[in-house]
């Protein structure tokens, strides 16, 4: 049976790969991102299977409207893929700007909470799934990654608490590994002056050696979990 899934950060990278996998397997998708053109292109390609809207992840009034769009368009909601996020600021803790950290947490954690909260009533009814794109940085510290890594660790904890409080919903966090996305390009362009040289050089060499994962690889895993994830994975982090 076709499922209905909301995918955030759907205009590029992993989010776009998730959306494409779902659409090519006959599911219906509500696409969310800041950029309209890539979403409109998918709508043109899959006109009966796509609804979309642009939204800023820090606008906490948006998730209820997006859930309403899913239900109004397709009659139900079966899955939520929380894929949006940001990396900056990349600074050492001694140089941290608290306002910059708050902005990142607004996107990486509180927005995730807002989407989950909005989706819970519908996902209870369908015994649905919430899949959050996390990061290996949630488990390991990197120089100048304190804001990003700690926000993803908090997001992993959010998934654990969702699993504890909402047993009808399967909630899982996925660390996709090093993926050939714009975030990796950001690391290579800005990390050289603030990261530990060994860590930074590892990211650069992974790109130069062509060993970054294509977005389609984690995208397929996340897409499958969003429609078929079993309850025994709920509350867990996988990489």
From TrEMBL:
Highest taxon above the source species: Eukaryota
Protein name (Swiss-Prot/TrEMBL): Short-chain dehydrogenase
PROSITE patterns for the chain: ADH_SHORT (PS00061)
Keyword Ribosomal protein tagged: no
Keyword NADP (UniProt): yes
Family: Belongs to the short-chain dehydrogenases/reductases (SDR) family.
GO terms for MF: oxidoreductase activity, acting on NAD(P)H, oxygen as acceptor
InterPro entries (UniProt xref): KR_dom (IPR057326), NAD(P)-bd_dom_sf (IPR036291), Sc_DH/Rdtase_CS (IPR020904), SDR_fam (IPR002347)
Keywords from the UniProt entry: NADP, Oxidoreductase
Domain (Ketoreductase) ranges: 3-182
Any matching Pfam family: adh_short
Organism: Ophiostoma piceae (strain UAMH 11346)
